[in-house]
Design a protein that fits this description.
The protein has about 375 residues and is mainly α. The chain is built from 17 helices and no strands. The longest helix has 20 residues.
């Protein structure tokens, strides 16, 4: 095993420029590199680190095209049309609402505006002003406020509370415009976490989502945060919530992967025991997620999210071939947990990818033996 880790360490310098990577949630620290050609992810057709797309977990070309158009022209109409044509109850609408809100929030951060310059994200303000009854625009605005609260202020402060209260009002307005749409209530899940809703209040909100989209994976992931130990629940409550969702998951649903996300949310900040990732609780959660991935539709918008988290656990558990089988499906996009928790998601992903390749080859694998 010592030889294997030496081989894996040898590839890191080729993929990570930073001298150190902070250890977080069981993350792997960069170590000095030896021979740089021990294993090369490029041999498997994987894209270069600098070309990894950190905006989303997997491809959504329609969204990318519209985002490019909106940001280039500062005209919201293409975004409005895309959301109007996206199924309300599905996962894709929620992801697109988050993407548009995130784009506007980042624009505002990069261009706060001034005497002679309009602030970034102006297209969203125009959208709300010109189309106040547009349900899509209302949902994007509510999510924009939530992201602004988390991005620009600190939970518990007056500034944070004021923005979150505004977001809660915006969620209510968006819900009135589209009574059957679960997205405004999904946005409010983050508000509930930030404003510390009581468990009774949170349950009432959750029932509204279950009435509209009972098997919505994105909703369950957002709700899981509330039940976590670091917020308003506990390890037991989070595990119970995740396991209940998995137990009632219909065939083909990715909800069977929920326990793996619960395990991830409760990883110790520093874990030096490699056997933890081969423990019963982790192994059971990984198997559930693998089953969910194998049963899910190939076009399920949440599939990439599960695959990304599986790569993390499979590499840590030294299950190299299985990690490689996930990587061939998601390589190129890194906008998902756990990479997005890093200051440099592409570098974090590249480390795990390099380790997977090194471990795979140290056990006799090669590009020719990898199942595509």
């Amino acid at each position: 095993m010592e030889i294997l880790w030496v081989l894996m360490a040898a590839v890191l310098l080729s993929f990570v420029l930073l001298p150190f990577l902070r250890r977080r949630r069981g993350g792997i620290e960069q170590v000095p590199a030896g021979h740089p050609d021990a294993a090369d992810p490029a041999d498997y057709g994987f894209v270069r680190q600098e070309e990894l797309d950190i905006r989303m977990p997997g491809p959504d070309q329609d969204l990318l095209d519209v985002l490019d158009l909106v940001q280039r022209t500062q005209d919201y109409k293409a975004a409005s049309q895309l959301l109007a044509g996206t199924e309300r109850e599905g996962e894709l609408r929620w992801q697109r609402v988050q993407a548009f809100a995130g784009a506007a929030s980042l624009e505002l951060q990069q261009r706060p505006g001034g005497v002679s310059e309009a602030p970034g994200g102006q297209w969203l303000r125009v959208w709300r002003a010109e189309q106040p009854k547009d349900a899509g625009g209302a949902a994007v605005h509510a999510e924009f406020l939530v992201q602004q609260a988390w991005r620009t202020s600190t939970p518990g402060t007056d500034e944070f509370r004021i923005i979150m209260e505004e977001a809660r009002t915006a969620c209510g307005e968006a819900a009135l415009l589209a009574p059957g749409d679960p997205v405004p209530y999904l946005v409010e899940l983050s508000v509930a976490r930030g404003l510390a809703y009581s468990q009774a209040e949170f349950e009432q909100l959750w029932l509204k989502i279950l009435d509209r989209a009972p098997n919505h994976m994105g909703a369950h992931l957002a709700a899981l945060h509330y039940w976590c130990e670091k917020w308003h629940g506990s390890r037991k409550l989070a595990y119970d919530f995740a396991e209940a969702a998995a137990a009632r998951a219909p065939h083909g649903s990715l909800l069977a992967a929920m326990p793996l996300f619960a395990v991830f949310e409760h990883l110790p900040e520093v874990n030096l025991v490699s056997g933890f990732y081969q423990s019963e609780v982790v192994t059971k959660a990984v198997h559930g997620a693998l089953h969910a991935v194998h049963s899910a539709r190939a076009d399920d918008p949440m599939l990439a999210h599960v695959r990304h988290l599986l790569v993390f656990f499979l590499v840590r558990g030294e299950r190299w071939a299985e990690a490689m089988n996930q990587l061939v499906h998601i390589d190129g996009h890194v906008g998902a947990l756990p990479w997005t928790l890093s200051a440099d998601p592409a570098a974090e992903f590249a480390i795990y990818r390099a380790l997977a390749v090194a471990g795979y080859e140290a056990n006799g694998g090669s590009p020719a033996t990898l199942t595509q």
